[in-house]
Write a structure and sequence with these properties.
The protein has about 325 residues and is an alpha/beta fold. The strands form 3 sheets. It has a 9-stranded mixed sheet with strand order 3-4-13-10-9-8-7-6-5. A two-stranded antiparallel sheet has the order 1-2. It is globular.
Length: about 325
């Protein structure tokens, strides 16, 4: 890397052949690392170079996030070499839609389903991922004020049956404060996730807002989105230095500063290389969940592979 800029590295990584011998199909031992009360077990195909990688499968922009497409999702994750995923609730929960179903009726039907959920449903979904060698690390649900306390408990209980260690969402500070008392009842954590909207005083968007959110409970963990934090002109490296013990994961992607556009890895301003090497060198149990939003003419599976290959080169060089 001597004399090579981050963007030079990005161009090299995205144009070179995939790195051979990156990792065997499985890592034999069940490695464990602990930060506070959060334990991350890394024993799957995407534990590479000392960093646990996973995918936020929103990346498959061409694949609608619904239960009917879950088998395709599993196949793609295996094809791209991932052994860990952040699973959105829409891949798991039924959809209540129809010509004669209003949005209000659909919302009530979903609540009723959650409250009367069958444990078998969640364990069956978990088995689909287990059989493919994929761990469900977190369960992504955008909880809002319409959720009753019983429904929130039901969401956490369902997530735990899936094997998830926490529930993550893009809710603001007010809802996060309300939610902070729930994960501890289920021996889980609540992940708070940032965006780049600096005009909303309730939003997670700056380091200061994260500090407020983390102060609600020890069970609250940060999921730092490097794309949005960079676009909001935040310091990702400084954030990791100061708050790594309260972080469960990063949503790893690239974007330009000053609310700029999303970009392929290495072509924006997000310090992807620095973030990954900090996690690697310090052996922090922070999961790197790849996510991108930039437009591409390539098939989504190919684009995901390019991003993952970039990250492999970072942690193995």
């Amino acid at each position: 890397m001597s004399g090579m800029t981050r963007r030079d590295f990005g161009r090299l990584a995205l144009t070179s052949a995939p790195l051979l011998g990156v990792v065997s199909a499985w890592i034999d031992s069940d490695l464990q690392a602990q930060a506070g009360d959060l334990v991350v077990r890394s024993a799957n195909r995407s534990f590479i170079g000392g960093v646990q990688f996973g995918l936020q499968p929103f990346c498959y922009h061409d694949l609608p996030m619904m239960p009917e497409n879950r088998p395709t999702l599993v196949r793609r994750l295996v094809q791209n070499g991932f052994g860990m995923v952040e699973l959105h609730a829409t891949w798991v929960e039924p959809r209540f839609t129809g010509v004669d179903v209003s949005p209000e009726q659909a919302r009530e039907k979903l609540r009723a389903w959650r409250l009367s959920r069958s444990a078998d449903h969640y364990t069956r979904v978990k088995r689909e991922f287990d059989e493919a060698g994929i761990t469900i690390f977190t369960y992504y649900v955008n909880i809002n004020d319409s959720y009753t306390d019983a429904e929130i408990d039901a969401v956490f209980a369902g997530a735990k049956l899936l094997g998830a260690r926490g529930c993550v969402g893009s809710q603001g500070l007010a809802v996060s404060k309300r939610l902070a008392g729930f994960p501890g009842k289920h021996a889980m954590f609540l992940g708070i996730h940032n965006h780049a909207n600096l005009s909303d005083p309730d939003a997670l968007n700056t380091e200061e807002s994260f500090v407020k959110g983390l102060g609600f409970s020890p069970d609250v963990k940060a999921t730092l989105d490097t794309r949005h934090f960079t676009a909001a002109n935040g310091d990702c490296v400084g954030f990791l230095e100061r708050h790594h013990e309260r972080m469960s994961s990063v949503h790893l992607g690239d974007r330009r500063r000053n609310n700029g556009r999303s970009a392929p890895f290495g072509e924006g301003d997000s310090p992807i290389i620095e973030v990954l090497r900090m996690i690697r060198d310090n052996q922090w149990p922070i999961v790197a969940l790849l996510e991108f939003e930039h437009g591409t003419l390539r098939p989504q599976v190919e684009e995901v592979q390019l991003m993952f290959d970039y990250c492999k080169r970072v942690v193995l060089s």
